Structures are given as structure tokens and as C-alpha cells.
Amino acid sequence: MPTAAKLFGALAFAILGWISANIFSTGMPEGSQIGLLREIVAAIGFLAGWRVMGPAAGRGYYAALGGGMKTGIVMVFFSLLGFSIYEMVLLSMKMRYDGPVEAVLGVFDLMIEYGQLILRTDLLVTLFVGSALGGWISEFAGKHWR
């Protein structure tokens, strides 16, 4: 059932996803193609805000801080997973893996590789502050528009 908390949480985390993807793309290696990175991460943020943060709203502002952090982590995890699977499929079409098990294990190697690119102060601060704000915005909307 749509609620104001779900809507505002989804919008807040979609914006956070867009901003985070922009910051992430500045740290990528020279000549990297970003394609639809911003749009896809924003869509994942929208879904995470709707499905994770929205239902968690209504328990108070301190709980909203934790819910926002959880939603931010979910957004980052599924973004890393999705792009790693996509990259694995591209590499497997170039016959870079010996078999399907190696390709599946390659997804986790790619997640670690992309995860290391996230370990930058500006991006981590943006994710931390944005997740907290997203949680509080969702909580505020849930309290004022039921």
C-alpha cells in the first residue's frame, strides 16, 4: 500500500543513488564507460527506499537513522551485485571464464573490485549523510502524512 513514508523514502534514496553514482564515476579508471550507471543506481535507490525504508518509518527518528543506514547498505549491495553480474556476463561472452562455476565466483571478485572503488572519503560521507537524511525524511513524511 502506498504511503507518504514510502514515497519520500523512495525519492530520497533515488536522489542519493544519483548523487552517489556521479561521485563514484569520478573515481573510475580513465576511459571507463559509465553508460546508464546513474539511472540504474537511482532506480535501485528508489526501490530500496520504497521497500526497505518506507515500511521502517513510524518508529521514531533514532530508528529512522538506523533504517536509513540499512537502506543505504541495501542500495550499495544491490548496485554492486547488479553491475558485477552485468560485467560477468560481458566477460563470459568473451570466454574469459573456464566454466559456469568460475563465472559465478567471478561475480564476487568483481564485487570486491568495485567495492574497493567505493572506499573513498567523499563517497562514504555522502552515503552516510544521505542515508541518515533519507531515513529522517521518510520518518517526517510518515508522521505528517498518514
Radius of gyration: 17 Å
Strand content range: under 5%
* Shape, principal axes of CA atoms: elongated
Count of individual beta strands: 0
Largest sheet: none
Helix-strand sequence: HHHHH
Q: Number of helical runs?
A: 5
Regions with little confidence, pLDDT below 50 for 5+ residues: none
- Summarize the amount of helix as a percent range: over 70%
Straight-line N-to-C gap: 12 Å
Category by helix and strand content: mainly alpha
Mean pLDDT: 94
Write up this protein:
By secondary structure, the chain is an all-alpha fold. Helices cover 82% and strands 0% of the residues. It has helices spanning 4-26, 37-56, 61-93, 100-118, 121-144. Helix 1 (4-26) packs antiparallel against helix 5 (121-144), helix 2 (37-56) packs antiparallel against helix 3 and helix 3 crosses helix 5. The longest helix has 33 residues, at 61-93. The N and C termini lie close together (12 Å). The mean pLDDT is 94.
Summary tags:
elongated; mainly alpha; single chain; 0% strand; 146 residues
In a few lines, what is going on in this structure?
The chain has about 150 residues and is mostly helical.
Per-chain topology:
Layout: H1 4-26, H2 37-56, H3 61-93, H4 100-118, H5 121-144
Helix pairs in contact: 1-2, 1-5, 2-3, 2-5, 3-4, 3-5
